[in-house]
């Protein structure tokens, strides 16, 4: 059986951060050619064909990737560090969203708020459970409630990705409330 998780992680690297790893590029909307992705991955020792790629796009637990209509192009729905415009939908956020992070980042977050760091946007979760999963990737997890309703009232913009992740450009400290440590 193919290790789809390993392939999916590599595809995330290519489609969000470093397409040059396999000698391909993304267009301004973040699309890669499916043909170039498959050929480039195979030449880099990652055995993948169209069927496997379709399975990854369909079954990825976070819905990270999308094809275009005729499946000649593929892109990541969010999470990029390369500067592409994936045509995110601007949307009115709920009153509260959540951000899971690691304890060691908290002092800096309390002082300067949430920043996108290496990505294009700050990523926010719709519930605490998801935020805990996100934060735990980095270490001992702390969850902040983000007063997104108030932020929106004060003119901050929000977008929701194709796979339901909320994004914003930054969160000043006044909109943050630490709610949970795990
Ligand atoms: C922290 C995954 C110090 C921030 C997840 C986070 C998500 C600060 C880390 C998506 C800071 C960046 C994104 C400040 C923010 N000082 N640290 N001022 N502001 N940080 O991985 O949000 O599985 O770039 O709290 O599920 O953890 O890849 O962002 O801990 O949806 O699809 O800097 O990535 O999705 O880390 O995760 P990341 P994230 P995938």
Summarize the topology.
Blueprint: H1 4-17, E1 32-33, H2 34-43, H3 50-59, E2 65-67, E3 73-76, E4 89-90, E5 97-102, H4 106-112, E6 122-124, H5 128-136, E7 141-146, H6 148-153, E8 159-160, E9 166-168, E10 176-181
Antiparallel strand pairs: 1-3, 2-3, 4-8, 5-7, 6-9, 7-10, 8-9
The chain binds ligand HQG.
Compose a concise summary of this entry:
By secondary structure, the protein is α+β, with helices and mostly antiparallel strands. It has helices at 4-17, 34-43, 50-59, 106-112, 128-136, 148-153; strands at 32-33, 65-67, 73-76, 89-90, 97-102, 122-124, 141-146, 159-160, 166-168, 176-181. The N and C termini lie far apart (35 Å).
Task: Provide structural commentary.
Helices cover 31% and strands 20% of the residues. It has 2 domains: 4-75, Arc Repressor Mutant, subunit A, CATH 1.10.10; 90-181, ADP-ribosylation fold (Alpha-Beta Barrel), CATH 3.20.170. The mean pLDDT is 96. By secondary structure, the chain is of the alpha+beta class. Strand 8 and strand 9 (166-168) form a beta hairpin. It has 6 helices and 10 strands. The strands form 3 sheets. Strands 4-8-9-6 form a 4-stranded antiparallel beta sheet, with no helix packed on it.
